[in-house]
Each structure stands twice: as C-alpha cells, then as structure tokens.
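Worked example 2:
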Amino acid sequence: MEYTGERINRRETKRRSEGPLHYMFTLDSYWTLDGTVGGSGAEYINHCCEPNVYAWVTQGHILYMGKRPIAKDEELTIDYHFAKNVEKVICKCGAKTCRGTINLK
C-alpha cells in the first residue's frame, strides 16, 4: 500500500502539526506527506512495537510492505519510530517488546 497525501514543506509541516488532527509521514529532510489531504487509507495504520508492516521510502514514494504473511482480518500495524527528542507519546500496544512509548529510546 502506498502512503499518499499532499506534499508539504517543513514550514507547512510545523504549522499543520500544531492543529488538532494530523496524519503526516516525513518523506525526507524537506518534504512530508500529509495523509489528511488525499490520503490512501495508509494514514490510519496504527503503531505497534512489533509491527507486521514496514515503510519503504523510494524515489519520492512511501510504500508499506508486509514483514510477513498477514492473516485475513488482521490489523495492519507499523512502528512509527517517533524521535526520542520530541514530546513522548505513551504506547499501550501490548506487544511483548513494547517500549512503553512510540518514541525511540
């Protein structure tokens, strides 16, 4: 599945991130994709410390790929890898290896 959305620069990313609802994925050091505008549905994939999906960034695109075969009706999950130097977000994913935070340690 491709993560799609409006391509926005760093200044606009900062402005939008201060709003109440945002689904953004950093593409590179300058661009971010805002899934709230033109998203494919990939923006709704939840975080888990033991995900079944990983992100592959290639040629300006973000592709979500299965880490293993995924069962019918199984929830798709990805590790958000929030930076350790930003506001901490509590994680309650229930995975055996749960970090307790969505942020990297």
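The domain at 2-78 is CATH 2.170.270.10 (Beta-clip-like). The first helix runs from residue 10 to 17.
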